[in-house]
Amino acid sequence: MEELATGYGLVEGPVWDAARQCLYYSDVPNGGVFRLDADGGVSVQFPHRRGIGGMALHEAGGLVVGGRNLAFKSFAGGPSQVLLDNDVTEHAIGFNDFTTDPRGRIWAGSLAFRVFGGEEPRPGHLHRVDLDGSAHTLSDGVMLTNGMGFSPDGTRLYHSDARAELIRVYDVDEAGGVSPWRVFARMPKDVPDGLAVAADGTVWVALAHGGRVAVFSPEGEEVRSIPVPLPMVTSVCFGGPDLRDLYIVTGSRGGPHENCGAVFRIRADTPGLPLADCRVRLPEELRA
Protein backbone atom coordinates (compact mmCIF):
# COMPACT_ATOMS: atom_id res chain seq x y z
CA MET A 1 0.00 0.00 0.00
CA GLU A 2 1.43 3.37 -1.08
CA GLU A 3 0.78 6.72 0.60
CA LEU A 4 0.31 9.19 -2.27
CA ALA A 5 -0.67 12.42 -0.47
CA THR A 6 -1.17 13.57 3.11
CA GLY A 7 -1.72 16.68 5.24
CA TYR A 8 -5.54 16.82 5.21
CA GLY A 9 -8.13 17.01 7.98
CA LEU A 10 -10.65 14.54 6.52
CA VAL A 11 -10.35 13.28 2.96
CA GLU A 12 -13.61 12.35 1.22
CA GLY A 13 -15.35 11.99 -2.13
CA PRO A 14 -12.64 10.29 -4.22
CA VAL A 15 -13.58 10.10 -7.90
CA TRP A 16 -11.46 8.81 -10.78
CA ASP A 17 -11.31 10.76 -14.05
CA ALA A 18 -10.46 8.24 -16.78
CA ALA A 19 -10.16 10.88 -19.51
CA ARG A 20 -7.54 12.87 -17.59
CA GLN A 21 -6.10 9.89 -15.67
CA CYS A 22 -6.32 11.66 -12.32
CA LEU A 23 -8.07 11.41 -8.98
CA TYR A 24 -10.15 14.17 -7.37
CA TYR A 25 -10.83 14.29 -3.63
CA SER A 26 -11.96 16.79 -1.00
CA ASP A 27 -10.87 17.91 2.47
CA VAL A 28 -14.11 18.24 4.46
CA PRO A 29 -13.07 20.50 7.39
CA ASN A 30 -10.32 22.51 5.68
CA GLY A 31 -12.07 22.96 2.36
CA GLY A 32 -11.05 22.48 -1.24
CA VAL A 33 -11.07 19.88 -3.99
CA PHE A 34 -7.70 18.48 -5.00
CA ARG A 35 -6.37 16.74 -8.09
CA LEU A 36 -3.81 13.94 -7.91
CA ASP A 37 -2.16 13.26 -11.28
CA ALA A 38 -0.59 10.03 -12.49
CA ASP A 39 2.90 11.47 -11.92
CA GLY A 40 2.09 12.08 -8.24
CA GLY A 41 1.62 15.82 -8.54
CA VAL A 42 -1.13 17.39 -6.41
CA SER A 43 -2.92 20.63 -7.28
CA VAL A 44 -5.98 22.51 -6.07
CA GLN A 45 -8.87 22.03 -8.49
CA PHE A 46 -11.42 24.11 -6.55
CA PRO A 47 -10.49 26.10 -3.43
CA HIS A 48 -12.46 26.99 -0.34
CA ARG A 49 -15.71 25.01 -0.28
CA ARG A 50 -16.00 22.89 2.87
CA GLY A 51 -18.21 19.96 3.72
CA ILE A 52 -17.88 18.07 0.42
CA GLY A 53 -18.60 14.45 1.28
CA GLY A 54 -19.24 13.17 -2.24
CA MET A 55 -18.41 14.06 -5.85
CA ALA A 56 -19.16 12.87 -9.38
CA LEU A 57 -17.95 13.88 -12.83
CA HIS A 58 -20.42 15.74 -15.05
CA GLU A 59 -20.48 15.37 -18.83
CA ALA A 60 -20.37 19.18 -19.20
CA GLY A 61 -16.77 19.23 -17.98
CA GLY A 62 -16.68 19.61 -14.23
CA LEU A 63 -17.68 18.04 -10.95
CA VAL A 64 -20.93 17.74 -9.03
CA VAL A 65 -20.04 18.29 -5.37
CA GLY A 66 -21.99 17.69 -2.18
CA GLY A 67 -22.38 19.82 0.93
CA ARG A 68 -25.25 22.17 1.72
CA ASN A 69 -26.53 21.38 -1.79
CA LEU A 70 -25.50 19.36 -4.83
CA ALA A 71 -23.83 21.80 -7.20
CA PHE A 72 -22.01 21.68 -10.53
CA LYS A 73 -18.59 23.33 -10.61
CA SER A 74 -17.06 23.73 -14.07
CA PHE A 75 -13.39 23.03 -14.75
CA ALA A 76 -13.52 26.14 -16.95
CA GLY A 77 -14.52 28.36 -14.02
CA GLY A 78 -17.64 30.39 -13.38
CA PRO A 79 -20.28 30.27 -10.66
CA SER A 80 -21.62 27.04 -9.21
CA GLN A 81 -24.99 25.77 -10.46
CA VAL A 82 -27.27 24.05 -7.95
CA LEU A 83 -28.72 20.72 -9.10
CA LEU A 84 -30.45 19.77 -5.83
CA ASP A 85 -31.04 22.15 -2.94
CA ASN A 86 -31.63 21.38 0.72
CA ASP A 87 -35.31 22.31 0.50
CA VAL A 88 -35.99 18.90 -1.05
CA THR A 89 -37.53 17.84 2.29
CA GLU A 90 -38.64 19.76 5.37
CA HIS A 91 -35.66 18.68 7.48
CA ALA A 92 -32.82 18.32 4.95
CA ILE A 93 -29.81 20.53 5.65
CA GLY A 94 -27.45 19.14 3.01
CA PHE A 95 -26.06 16.09 1.26
CA ASN A 96 -23.21 13.75 2.00
CA ASP A 97 -22.27 10.97 -0.39
CA PHE A 98 -23.96 10.20 -3.72
CA THR A 99 -23.46 8.28 -6.94
CA THR A 100 -24.62 8.10 -10.55
CA ASP A 101 -26.41 5.27 -12.31
CA PRO A 102 -25.63 4.07 -15.87
CA ARG A 103 -28.06 6.65 -17.29
CA GLY A 104 -26.26 9.51 -15.56
CA ARG A 105 -28.94 10.21 -12.95
CA ILE A 106 -27.91 11.23 -9.43
CA TRP A 107 -28.75 9.13 -6.37
CA ALA A 108 -28.09 11.03 -3.15
CA GLY A 109 -28.75 10.84 0.56
CA SER A 110 -29.80 13.92 2.51
CA LEU A 111 -28.64 14.83 6.02
CA ALA A 112 -31.16 16.11 8.55
CA PHE A 113 -28.82 17.10 11.41
CA ARG A 114 -25.31 18.51 11.83
CA VAL A 115 -23.22 15.45 12.53
CA PHE A 116 -20.44 17.35 14.33
CA GLY A 117 -22.67 20.00 15.90
CA GLY A 118 -24.03 18.06 18.85
CA GLU A 119 -27.55 18.06 17.42
CA GLU A 120 -30.10 15.35 18.13
CA PRO A 121 -29.90 12.77 15.31
CA ARG A 122 -32.76 12.99 12.82
CA PRO A 123 -33.25 10.70 9.81
CA GLY A 124 -32.65 11.80 6.25
CA HIS A 125 -33.83 10.43 2.91
CA LEU A 126 -32.74 8.83 -0.35
CA HIS A 127 -33.33 10.95 -3.46
CA ARG A 128 -33.02 10.52 -7.23
CA VAL A 129 -32.39 13.43 -9.61
CA ASP A 130 -33.50 12.68 -13.16
CA LEU A 131 -31.84 13.97 -16.33
CA ASP A 132 -34.37 16.80 -16.61
CA GLY A 133 -33.42 17.99 -13.11
CA SER A 134 -36.56 16.79 -11.36
CA ALA A 135 -36.02 15.35 -7.85
CA HIS A 136 -37.79 12.36 -6.33
CA THR A 137 -37.65 11.21 -2.69
CA LEU A 138 -37.56 7.42 -2.59
CA SER A 139 -36.84 6.21 0.94
CA ASP A 140 -36.60 7.55 4.48
CA GLY A 141 -35.15 6.69 7.88
CA VAL A 142 -31.49 7.03 6.84
CA MET A 143 -29.78 8.07 10.08
CA LEU A 144 -26.41 9.06 8.58
CA THR A 145 -26.18 8.62 4.82
CA ASN A 146 -22.84 7.55 3.39
CA GLY A 147 -21.42 5.55 0.48
CA MET A 148 -23.59 4.46 -2.43
CA GLY A 149 -23.06 2.25 -5.46
CA PHE A 150 -24.88 0.09 -8.00
CA SER A 151 -24.45 -3.61 -8.78
CA PRO A 152 -22.90 -4.39 -12.19
CA ASP A 153 -26.33 -4.97 -13.78
CA GLY A 154 -27.78 -1.79 -12.25
CA THR A 155 -30.62 -3.58 -10.48
CA ARG A 156 -29.38 -3.15 -6.89
CA LEU A 157 -28.34 -0.01 -5.01
CA TYR A 158 -26.09 -0.33 -1.96
CA HIS A 159 -26.31 2.48 0.60
CA SER A 160 -24.26 2.86 3.79
CA ASP A 161 -26.03 4.14 6.90
CA ALA A 162 -23.15 4.91 9.27
CA ARG A 163 -25.26 5.76 12.32
CA ALA A 164 -27.35 2.58 11.97
CA GLU A 165 -24.09 0.63 11.41
CA LEU A 166 -25.37 -1.22 8.36
CA ILE A 167 -25.51 -1.18 4.59
CA ARG A 168 -28.92 -1.08 2.96
CA VAL A 169 -29.71 -2.64 -0.39
CA TYR A 170 -32.66 -1.68 -2.63
CA ASP A 171 -33.92 -3.38 -5.77
CA VAL A 172 -34.12 -0.79 -8.57
CA ASP A 173 -36.51 -1.03 -11.52
CA GLU A 174 -36.15 0.36 -15.04
CA ALA A 175 -38.00 3.57 -14.19
CA GLY A 176 -35.82 4.28 -11.14
CA GLY A 177 -38.25 3.09 -8.50
CA VAL A 178 -36.90 1.21 -5.51
CA SER A 179 -38.16 -1.63 -3.36
CA PRO A 180 -38.34 -1.34 0.44
CA TRP A 181 -34.77 -1.58 1.67
CA ARG A 182 -33.34 -4.61 3.41
CA VAL A 183 -30.08 -5.21 5.26
CA PHE A 184 -27.14 -6.14 3.04
CA ALA A 185 -24.56 -6.27 5.86
CA ARG A 186 -24.35 -5.21 9.51
CA MET A 187 -21.18 -3.73 11.03
CA PRO A 188 -21.97 -2.95 14.68
CA LYS A 189 -18.39 -1.94 15.56
CA ASP A 190 -16.88 -0.68 12.34
CA VAL A 191 -19.20 2.09 10.96
CA PRO A 192 -19.66 1.74 7.16
CA ASP A 193 -18.62 4.83 5.23
CA GLY A 194 -17.87 5.26 1.52
CA LEU A 195 -18.08 2.28 -0.82
CA ALA A 196 -17.31 1.15 -4.35
CA VAL A 197 -18.51 -1.83 -6.39
CA ALA A 198 -16.17 -4.03 -8.43
CA ALA A 199 -16.85 -5.60 -11.81
CA ASP A 200 -17.37 -8.99 -10.17
CA GLY A 201 -20.14 -7.58 -7.98
CA THR A 202 -18.16 -7.42 -4.74
CA VAL A 203 -18.78 -4.38 -2.54
CA TRP A 204 -15.70 -2.63 -1.09
CA VAL A 205 -16.53 -0.61 2.04
CA ALA A 206 -14.45 1.89 4.00
CA LEU A 207 -14.89 1.36 7.74
CA ALA A 208 -14.64 4.71 9.48
CA HIS A 209 -13.70 3.37 12.90
CA GLY A 210 -12.20 0.10 11.77
CA GLY A 211 -8.86 0.98 10.19
CA ARG A 212 -9.65 -1.20 7.21
CA VAL A 213 -11.61 -1.80 4.02
CA ALA A 214 -14.05 -4.72 4.10
CA VAL A 215 -14.95 -6.59 0.91
CA PHE A 216 -18.37 -8.24 0.70
CA SER A 217 -19.70 -10.81 -1.74
CA PRO A 218 -22.93 -9.93 -3.62
CA GLU A 219 -24.71 -12.01 -0.97
CA GLY A 220 -23.42 -9.80 1.87
CA GLU A 221 -20.72 -12.13 3.25
CA GLU A 222 -17.41 -10.49 4.21
CA VAL A 223 -14.75 -12.21 2.09
CA ARG A 224 -11.68 -10.00 2.61
CA SER A 225 -10.28 -7.37 4.97
CA ILE A 226 -7.64 -4.83 3.88
CA PRO A 227 -5.81 -3.09 6.77
CA VAL A 228 -5.08 0.62 6.34
CA PRO A 229 -2.29 2.55 8.15
CA LEU A 230 -4.71 5.11 9.65
CA PRO A 231 -7.78 4.19 11.72
CA MET A 232 -10.37 6.53 10.18
CA VAL A 233 -11.00 5.09 6.71
CA THR A 234 -13.58 7.27 4.99
CA SER A 235 -13.98 6.21 1.35
CA VAL A 236 -12.67 4.18 -1.59
CA CYS A 237 -12.77 4.26 -5.37
CA PHE A 238 -11.28 2.29 -8.25
CA GLY A 239 -9.03 3.99 -10.77
CA GLY A 240 -5.96 3.64 -12.96
CA PRO A 241 -5.85 2.66 -16.64
CA ASP A 242 -7.32 -0.79 -15.87
CA LEU A 243 -9.50 0.28 -12.89
CA ARG A 244 -7.51 -2.04 -10.63
CA ASP A 245 -5.93 0.72 -8.54
CA LEU A 246 -7.94 0.96 -5.32
CA TYR A 247 -7.69 4.45 -3.84
CA ILE A 248 -8.35 4.58 -0.10
CA VAL A 249 -8.80 7.90 1.71
CA THR A 250 -8.73 8.65 5.42
CA GLY A 251 -9.40 11.22 8.09
CA SER A 252 -7.20 12.31 10.97
CA ARG A 253 -9.21 10.99 13.92
CA GLY A 254 -7.10 8.54 15.89
CA GLY A 255 -3.97 9.44 13.90
CA PRO A 256 -0.72 11.06 15.04
CA HIS A 257 -1.79 14.68 14.45
CA GLU A 258 -4.69 16.91 13.42
CA ASN A 259 -4.03 16.99 9.68
CA CYS A 260 -2.75 13.52 8.87
CA GLY A 261 -5.61 12.51 6.55
CA ALA A 262 -4.12 10.80 3.52
CA VAL A 263 -4.67 9.16 0.13
CA PHE A 264 -3.42 5.58 -0.26
CA ARG A 265 -3.33 3.21 -3.22
CA ILE A 266 -3.21 -0.56 -3.47
CA ARG A 267 -3.60 -2.92 -6.42
CA ALA A 268 -6.86 -4.88 -6.45
CA ASP A 269 -7.32 -8.39 -7.81
CA THR A 270 -10.43 -7.34 -9.72
CA PRO A 271 -11.24 -4.13 -11.62
CA GLY A 272 -13.82 -1.67 -10.40
CA LEU A 273 -16.96 -0.68 -12.24
CA PRO A 274 -16.60 2.50 -14.30
CA LEU A 275 -19.00 5.18 -13.06
CA ALA A 276 -21.11 7.05 -15.60
CA ASP A 277 -20.68 10.81 -15.79
CA CYS A 278 -23.63 12.77 -14.45
CA ARG A 279 -25.97 13.86 -17.26
CA VAL A 280 -28.46 15.89 -15.21
CA ARG A 281 -29.37 19.04 -17.11
CA LEU A 282 -27.72 22.18 -15.78
CA PRO A 283 -29.92 25.10 -14.67
CA GLU A 284 -28.33 27.45 -17.21
CA GLU A 285 -29.26 25.00 -19.98
CA LEU A 286 -32.88 25.23 -18.85
CA ARG A 287 -32.75 29.03 -19.24
CA ALA A 288 -31.16 28.88 -22.70
Helix and strand run: EEEEEEEEEEEEEEEEEEEEEEEEH
Radius of gyration: 17 Å
Q: CA-to-CA gap between the ends?
A: 48 Å
Strand content: over 45%
**Helix tally?**
1
Going by helix content, strand content and strand pairing, the class is mainly beta
Helical fraction? under 10%
Count of strand segments: 24
Main sheet: strands, sense, barrel: 4 strands, antiparallel
Strand order of the largest sheet: 1-24-23-22
Q: Average the pLDDT over all residues and give the rounded result.
A: 95
Q: Low-confidence stretches at least 5 residues in length (pLDDT < 50)?
A: none
Question: Overall 3D geometry?
Answer: globular
Q: How would you describe the overall organization of this protein?
A:
With 288 residues, the chain is mostly beta strands. It has one helix and 24 strands. The strands form six sheets. A four-stranded antiparallel β-sheet has the order 1-24-23-22, with no helix packed on it. Strands 2-3-4-5 form a four-stranded antiparallel β-sheet, with no helix packed on it. A four-stranded antiparallel β-sheet has the order 6-7-8-9, with no helix packed on it. A hairpin with a 5-residue loop joins strand 22 and strand 23.
